[in-house]
Amino acid sequence: MSIAFKNETFRDDFTFRNSPAAVRRFPFPFAEDTYAYSVNIEPHTPGAAGSAFEFAFDIDEHYVAECEDRRVTLSLDPERYVALPHMMDAQWDFLELVFDSLARDYPQHFGLRKDGARWTWINRPLGIQDTFTFGDSTTLAREPFDYAARQAQGDFVLLDQRDGDLWADAGMVTSQADWSLAFDAGMSFKQWHGPVPMAHEIGVFDRALKYLLALRQGQPVRRLNWTMTVNPRLDTSPESYPLWGPDRTLVTTENAGRLVHLRVELQALFRLPRSNGILFSIRCYLASLDDIAKYPRWSKRLLRVLQSLPPQLVEYKGLVRYRDAVMSWLSRYEDGQPIGRGTHPE
Amino acid sequence: MSASISVRVGAISEVVPGIKEFSLSRPDGAPLPSYSGGSHVLVTLPGASRAHRNSYSLMGDPSRTDAYRIAVRRHAGSRGGSRVLHEQVEVGTPLTISHPLNLFPIARLGRKHILVAGGIGVTPIIAQAHDLARRGADFEVHYAFRAPDQAAYADVLRDLAGTRLHRYCTASGERIDFRGMLADQPIGTHLYVCGPVNFIDAARSAARAHRWPSSHIHSEQFLSPPVGSAFEVHLARSGRRIAVAPDISLLEAIEQAGVAAPQSCRGGACGQCETEVMEADGQIAHHDVYLSEADKAAGRKIMLCVSRLQGRRLVLNL
After folding, report:
1. Chain B residue with minimal CA distance to A162?
2. So what's the ipTM on this one?
3. Would the pLDDT of B71 be above 50?
């Protein structure tokens, strides 16, 4: 089936909108009425056809517009791409994994022909066709990770494994929830998770790190993370805070449905073959409260989660200024009835 | 993506007396995943009474994806793994392997790399040497073997390392002088050792004596679960009582009872099967290389894959 890619923006006039089908496949993250930290990692195995979990790398109607938004962000701030010199094997591992996956899972949109090490990559939505020699960076216009990540939906960090730890030694990050690649580059697993409240104390990162150090090829894992964003803006980085920080003062009970978006990250981790590194992929999904409200299960659930969220998490996720307005907006859907376990809509 | 890979034994050769090499390919000839030097796969072998599952290092050139190669020494006291491979596995035998995992990787920021192999421990060293040669890295190889007819793959290492290969024949009285070898190495040098326990211990203690940082000392060893005496394990969370026979590992007994326990390498190295001990009426015989000496002495943790109880009753938080 062919995807109809939308022409839309994630800045300035914010013309981003989800189609009804995109809302229905939105990876809603709350299976219960309360949210707590846990090592919520599960195998990244193929999910239901049409779902965000069907393939290793999900491509949806926003793909072309997200690639364009990324191009704009990179042109304004080239430091959103970092790759330390020892990551070249991991760069090629990334290109191979992403191009193999896209060509296999979306053959109507992407193609990859291999004649030994001579590869031809075809990206129809972006109008790209290039032939290059796998492993030889001089045959591409950019470094392989830079080249491939600009054509993939979502953010990507390449982790080097050494000294019993994982190090964020390369990344292309343009749609992040208020963290800085330039700041985190070269940091260890626990260093870049330093700002997360509460989770260190309960040992979440010790257990997660131990699990990831023994992550096998062919057995990727995933988790969902979430926050909220005012306006459908992909680039909510610390570097661009002056552009989006003040938006949080604009939210009222009247406009919350249109302005406030639930922002869900489908995060996946893949062991890379040649480099023994790990790819950390962060695929961002945005749904306005108006979108969420199409399904009473979701609106009630989101309200209950926000009501019971510990103050440290309200602060960490940057919700202090407008959580009350959001809860007030959502409260019209609360009927006091229990919601069965699960993230599915009606 | 499937968790395991079906392969067929393509060729078997006796490299030197007592060591056989097996090449493994997909039945349809499709390429296997590429891997990094130092990786291993978990091989499931058919057995008369039960399947054997052992980890073996991938040797050869990691960029070759048409076939994986493993080399196995026949162990006299083997519970089954190496005996099955040597006696029962033939060309064409179907086997199941896991995807590769690397618990013995090359440190990418290392400025110089010293690879040291003892006996059959040469297998991961070969793949590491391939990787280092491909990257044009500064490395040297030290290879100790029992007798001239036991120098498996010395020719491969010579092709990769040239004059940077140093050979030591134990029968001729040659020994690796670890203290001397490590005394005068530049800052940023990493040491990688694979071989028998005593061999690894000698290398590690020499490196420590020269105040090498522990992050620059790497070793790998997969252990077979030793045969012990029978005992009973109680699983506190699932409320199960399971008898562990002398020639079955704790992990195998738990799995045979239908309880899924965390596990990966099954050789005491990766740490995934670490389990909390709630009660034990005897000493825990720790056989792994994962837990610290302090953890082993405290007796509150056990690695299910290779360690056992010397006693009658063990209670686990599982």
Report:
1. B107
2. 0.82
3. yes
